[in-house]
Amino acid sequence: MSDRFDQGMKTRREVLGDAHVDRAEAAKTDFDLPFQTLITEGAWGTVWSSDGISRRERSMLTLALLAATGNFEEIPMHIRATARTGASKQDVMEAFQHVAIYAGVPKANHAIKLAKQTYAEMERSDD
Asked: Where in this chain does the record put each Carboxymuconolactone decarboxylase-like domain (predicted)?
């Protein structure tokens, strides 16, 4: 594998946690291997590994973009990642308020609903 892939896996594990990455790796098949390599090198090895902005800021941007584009399935994963990126609940709410104004209240409302559910799950698993 490439240096970018190796850096991507390192960053992916730091942001999403070993358990999540291990599950994703176990589910990988020959069919989706090219896609998994693409996102590991591109998203994790390039974008998330850049030191141009902080991981906290990347979390906020990612969550806002996911909500604004209606890609809700990944919001819980990225809410869980905030425990490692430093984005607070207040940061997330600020991002979703921007979504409400610039992309629509229904999208922000649904993202907030998912965030609340995910934070509640995270709190229960801490017990």
From this structure: 35-116
- DSSP secondary structure string for all residues of 5-48: HHHHHHHHHHHH-HHHHHHHHHH--TTTHHHHHHHIIIIIIIIT
Answer yes or no: pTM beyond 0.90: yes
CA 7 to chain centre: 17
Task: Give 59-97 pLDDT, tens digit per residue.
Answer: 999 999 999 999 999 999 999 999 999 999 999 999 999
Look at residue 126 and tell me whether its pLDDT is greater than 90.
Answer: no
In Å, the largest CA–CA distance within the chain is 43
Q: Read off the amino acid at residue 22.
A: D
**Whole-angstrom distance, CA of residue 69 vs CA of residue 91:** 19
Sole residue written with tokens 């994963």 = 77
Instruction: Tell me if 79 sits within 8 A of 118, measured CB to CB.
Output: yes
Residue 96 gets which letter from DSSP? H
Tens-digit pLDDT profile for residues 36-57 = 999 999 999 999 999 999 999 9
Q: Distance between terminal CA atoms of the chain?
A: 39
